Amino acid sequence: MFYAYKLIGSLLVPPGLLCVITFIFSFVLFRSKNKKILSLAMLALSLFIWFMSTSAGSFFITGGLERKHLNSVPETERPVAFLVLAGGSNYDRDGDAVTPGVYSLERIYSAVTAADRSKDVLIFSGGNVYGYDQRTEAEIMDDCAKRMGWKGKTMLETSSRTTEENMIYAERMLSGPDFHHVVIVTNAFHMPRSMLRAHSVFRGKSLFSLSAGMETKPGFRGIPDLFPDAHNFHLSCLGIKEWIGILAFRILG
Question: Which of 14, 111, 118, 130 has its CA 20 to 30 A from that of 222?
Answer without folding.
Answer: 14
